[in-house]
Design goal:
Number of domains of chain B: 2
Structural class of chain A: alpha+beta
Low-confidence stretches of chain A: 299-306, 645-659
Low-confidence stretches of chain B: 143-153
Largest sheet of chain B: 5 strands, mixed, barrel
Oligomer: heterodimer
Number of domains of chain A: 4
Order of helices and strands of chain B: HEHEEEEEEEHE
Helix content of chain A: 55-70%
Radius of gyration of chain B: 22 Å
Shape of chain A: globular
Number of helices of chain A: 21
CATH architecture of the largest domain in chain A: Up-down Bundle
Number of strands of chain A: 11
CATH superfamily of the largest domain in chain B: Nucleic acid-binding proteins
Strand content of chain B: 25-35%
Radius of gyration of chain A: 27 Å
Helix content of chain B: 25-40%
Largest interface: A-B, 63 and 50 residues
Mean pLDDT of chain A: 89
Strand content of chain A: 5-15%
């Protein structure tokens, strides 16, 4: 009964979505307030019905209702409840349901919090949002129904893929989807602006919080996914340039560009058409990502086994929405009023620079991701485009962007003073040079590039501090005054500085782990000691122990630094009988912001066991940096100017106390 | 600066950056990509020694030899031709004789692949798609032996 209810709720959501796709647009054209307001209630009810549908599927999973095919294929009665729940989206059908669930959530949020939007813009945006929703409801109902019943209910399920039986699955996909799908808001608003044929600085102010929210979730989702892959795959790698990772990186890059160009639009009423185009492109990249992941065109650890019908359906959605929106853009954007041009050396100019580099960096990722598919389709030859390609293309572009990063916030609007800014960044240059020298001294000559990378990271970090110091007059005015000014500084200024600091932190971590990491791959016998980078590990032995739905082979190692015992590391291998699979649980030991990383290989007949041991200095900074970036976004989001549902600026200005 | 000059600066910088990106992409596409080959391709295509390739197929039963210091050698076969592979390190958990495998590395003069990466199927249903295609081409593919594509996210 419950699966049927869930299925029915989804059909009802589709019916509501169809109404919402048409009625508000007619209302906006005929200035019918009632028809326009209809979108609010349908958006809310869509959310309610999709939530019911999602809830119904979750109930099936938690209750292990194996008469439902997807539950049978992806769950097992012995699994811990948290994994039963997260299995809901650990498969194709369920994850698509999560996708539309989040889509409908954003629609409902606009309906509730979008009261300050012009009625027709809101109605049009919700209608566009509903077009997307309907396409995906149809996709689920026609090709990927998660509620399909089996004629005979099996007694036991096939269990979730053990690699996915990890807390990471509970967090990573929802965050990623909040990001991906969140960009649909920017898309819908852009399409609505094109339909309306009118766009102004206020548009950017309305769209920015939604984009920022999506961006924060995506940032955290990518960082979390990277950490999950790091500890679960057993190789100590944190980024594989896998097409599925690229699928989430591309919307992130375009979304980051969008956040920056929206600032120009809001503050200077310029770059309007470009911002609209970026909003369309960002969500288009999300759709391309969905296509890459969901259609099974990829050969990767992430892809799904499924039939081509789905791929063709998503491809049709892709072509319809990307092609349609770009056609709409080509047709309507000449109607929009162009913003002004500005001096190249200015804050606006620096943000254009940012956009240029972010979009071209994004382009290199797109080429690297799609080229193998295109080549195989056209010529039949199969190639792998991996780390080396992206290091040679994405790497230089992103590093150039980072070098320019500290200059941007220090340049004035309209006409900036580059020599003056350079002078103010002298302290950052100085510290960067010291960092380069120290890095060279410490590492010897392990890598020529790494010390310069460290210098760059320090340049950006100190640059972010200089930015704040300049704004508050720190070191120039009395400390108390600077502190008062700091408190009065717009939160978005804080947010930018913090986010820039965060990306530099990540860079530092990447350099530390990639250039200065050491590794040892060796077979050890009981009571044998191996050493790496000043740490000595003694293999104490192996124990077997049962888990809830697996058997575990646990190896124990005592870790010494010098003569001091600093702890025990217990990597393990888990054998899952239900899937006849095993997973590798690496042992991690934090050393400052670095880590020791130990994972197990095969055990041999002579009672030795193969191990992978890595020392990764600074590695934790990669993910800390992601969290810091996310916090920067949160600070910016809390800026009163951007607060979701904030009253109109005109109304607020009257309430502000005189300074 | 006049409006015209500003526009000129904007357009020329954009084109400059795009040109840099294009140059980077083209040079990387020449040097930094790796072609996938079946053992038959390796036998027939005269791949120059020293080039970096991927070879996929099945681990030939009886060919696996383990040495000291985690050295391992095995043959990759598609039923028609074999490619000997040498590797030092830990092979994936599901590396077995008769199972699908992809090895990446440099091809030596004698036709041996010195691998630095060995990938195996990672669950009971997964088979690297490249391997499936290679086996289909050589006529050794049976629909029951696996499903293309993995199941993890």
């Amino acid at each position: 009964m419950i699966p049927e209810l869930g299925h029915y709720a989804l059909v009802l959501a589709l019916a509501l979505g169809l109404i919402q796709s048409v009625a508000p647009v007619i209302g906006a054209r005929s200035h019918d307030a009632a028809l326009m307001r209809l979108a609010d209630s349908t958006a809310l009810m869509q959310f309610v019905f999709v939530a019911l549908s999602f809830g119904a599927l979750a109930v099936c999973y938690v209750n292990s209702d194996f008469s439902v095919q997807t539950v049978f294929e992806n769950s097992h009665s012995q699994m811990p409840v948290i994994y039963k729940f997260s299995s809901v989206w650990g498969n194709h059908e369920g994850s698509m349901l999560l996708w539309v669930f989040i889509l409908s959530l954003f629609g409902a949020l606009v309906a509730v919090f979008g009261n300050n939007l012009p009625a027709s813009l809101k109605a049009d945006a919700l209608a566009v949002q509903s077009w997307i929703a309907c396409a995906f409801y149809l996709f689920i109902l026609l090709t990927s129904n998660p509620f399909l019943r089996l004629p005979q209910a099996p007694a036991e399920g096939q269990s979730l893929n053990p690699i996915l039986q990890d807390p990471g699955l509970a967090v990573h996909p929802p965050l990623l989807y909040l990001g991906y799908v969140g960009f649909s808001m920017a898309f819908s608003f852009a399409a609505a602006a094109l339909i309306e044929g009118r766009i102004d600085a206020a548009w950017a102010r309305w769209v920015r919080p939604w984009t920022l929210m999506a961006w924060m979730c995506l940032t955290l989702g990518i960082a979390g996914g990277s950490y999950w892959a790091y500890y679960t795959l057993g190789w100590g790698g944190f980024w594989f340039w896998d097409p599925v990772e690229n699928a989430s990186l591309m919307p992130w890059l375009a979304g980051t560009a969008l956040l920056h160009s929206a600032v120009v639009m809001e503050k200077r009423n310029a770059l309007k058409i470009w911002t609209i185009l970026l909003a369309i492109l960002t969500f288009s990249l999300s759709l391309i990502g969905t296509f890459l992941v969901r259609s099974g065109v990829l050969t990767s650890v992430h892809s799904f086994a499924n039939d081509p019908r789905r791929g063709v359906f998503i491809l049709a959605i892709l072509v319809l929405f990307i092609g349609g929106s770009l056609a709409l853009f080509a047709w309507r954007s000449p109607v929009l009023k162009q913003g002004g041009l500005f001096a190249p050396i200015s804050r606006e100019g620096s943000l254009v620079f940012n956009n240029l580099f972010l979009t071209t960096a994004c382009l290199t990722v797109l080429v690297g991701t799609l080229y193998p598919l295109a080549l195989e389709a056209l010529t039949g030859s199969k190639i792998t485009v991996g780390g080396p390609f992206f290091n040679l293309t994405f790497g230089p572009l992103f590093l150039m962007l980072m070098f320019a990063m500290p200059f941007g916030p220090l340049l004035a609007w309209k006409r900036g003073d580059l020599p003056g800014v350079t002078q103010r960044l002298m302290s950052a240059f100085g510290i960067a040079l010291v960092a380069i020298a120290v890095a060279f001294a410490v590492e010897g000559s392990a890598s020529l590039l790494a010390p310069f990378g460290v210098g760059l990271a320090f340049f950006v970090m100190v640059g972010a501090v200089v930015d704040l110091a300049e704004r508050t007059g720190l070191f120039r005015v009395p400390f108390a005054t600077a502190l008062r000014r700091a408190a009065g500084l717009p939160r978005s200024a804080w947010g930018a500085a913090v986010a820039h600091f965060g990306i530099a932190t990540s860079l530092l971590g990447i350099i530390g782990a990639a250039a200065w990491g050491t590794e040892l791959i060796v077979a050890v016998k009981p009571s044998q000691t191996v050493s790496l980078s000043g740490y000595a590990l003694t293999f104490e032995g192996i124990v077997q122990r049962p888990g809830p739905n697996y058997r575990e082979l646990l190896a124990k190692f005592t870790v010494r630094s010098g003569d001091q015992i600093i702890g025990v590391m217990e990597p393990s291998k888990r054998d899952f009988a239900a899937r006849q699979m095993s997973t590798n649980e690496a042992a991690l030991m934090a050393r400052g912001v670095g880590q020791l990383y130990l994972s197990l290989g095969d055990s041999n007949s002579d009672s030795s066991i193969a191990i992978r041991l890595y020392h990764k200095p600074l590695v934790m900074l990669i993910w800390f940096g992601g969290v810091v970036m996310m916090l920067g976004g949160a600070l910016s989001l809390s800026d009163r100017r951007l607060r979701v549902g904030a009253p109109k600026p005109a109304a607020r200005a009257a309430l502000q106390p005189a300074e | 600066m006049t409006r015209k000059q500003r526009r000129l600066v904007l357009i020329s910088t954009s084109l400059g950056v795009i040109a840099i990106a294009a140059a980077l992409i083209l040079s990387a596409l020449r040097d930094a990509i790796v072609f996938f080959n079946s053992p038959t391709d390796v036998a027939e295509k005269h791949i120059s020694s020293g080039s970096r390739i991927r070879v996929g197929g099945l681990v030939k039963p009886g060919s696996v030899e383990r040495g000291d210091n985690l050295r391992i050698s095995f043959d990759v076969t598609d039923g028609k031709n074999d490619v000997p592979v040498r590797y030092q390190g830990i092979v994936p958990d599901l590396f077995r004789e008769g199972q699908g495998v992809v090895a990446e590395g440099k091809l030596e003069k004698g036709g041996t692949l010195v691998a630095d990466t060995v990938l195996a199927k990672h669950d009971e249903r997964y088979m690297p798609r490249e391997v499936v295609d290679a086996l289909k081409k050589s006529g050794r593919w049976e629909e029951t032996s696996g499903t293309a594509g993995g199941r993890t996210q």
